[in-house]
Amino acid sequence: MGTVAEWMDATGQAVRATEGRPPSREDLCTVADAPHVLERDGERQAYACVMDPLIVPFLDGRPATVESADPVTGADVTVRIDEEGARIEPASAVVSMGVGTDLDGEDPMTPEAAYGSLCAYINAFESRETYAKWAAETGGAVTTAIPAREAVGVAGAIAVDLFGGG
Q1: Which of 15, 48, 127, 135 could form an SS bridge with 119, CB 3.0 to 4.6 Å?
Q2: Domain-by-domain residue ranges, the chain?
Q3: How far apart are CA 21 and CA 2, in angstroms?
Q4: Residue 151: enclosing H or E segment and its boundaries?
């Protein structure tokens, strides 16, 4: 699997095969406690990776704030998404996009295997420098960093192309 489009296709097929339905918001990986949180209307929900809470506002069209902690420094990275777009603090923030190298070629890929190979490698960083430090110390994965603004665009594309939202 070499492209995001191929990954989305494989993930969609996996959910359909294992769950008998197309992917939905319920397939996002919520957890009791994590450094990636969606906040709105006074409620907070934690997610295993930063991409999932970035997707939510595109699925339901409601404004939200996504807060994440840089795994190197602990610094806050905040993304506010509303009808006017995305506001990102700090402006230097990047998001790692990565996948574990320990995939065993499972066929078909299950949603659990997809999350297991991705979630630990999709994080927000206050800067490209802190991402580079994390990437140098993180084995077992292939990662790259994109500006947080581009990650918001990826989240919107995933919402439309994988979940049929937007």
Answers
A1: 48
A2: 24-161
A3: 25
A4: helix 148-161
Residue 46 and residue 67: Cα distance in Å, rounded? 9
Q: What share of the chain is helix, strand, coil (3-state, %, to 5)?
A: 40, 30, 35
Q: What CATH number matches the domain at 24-161, 3.30.450.410, 3.90.1170.50, 2.30.30.140, 3.40.50.11780? A: 3.30.450.410
Residue type, 165: G
Nearest residue to 126 (alpha-carbon basis) of 166, 49, 73, 67 = 73
Tokens of 4: 């995001």
| pTM, 2 dp | 0.87
Extract the tokens encoding 1: 């699997």
Using one digit for the tens of pLDDT, what is the confidence trace for 12-39? 787 788 888 888 888 888 999 999 999 9
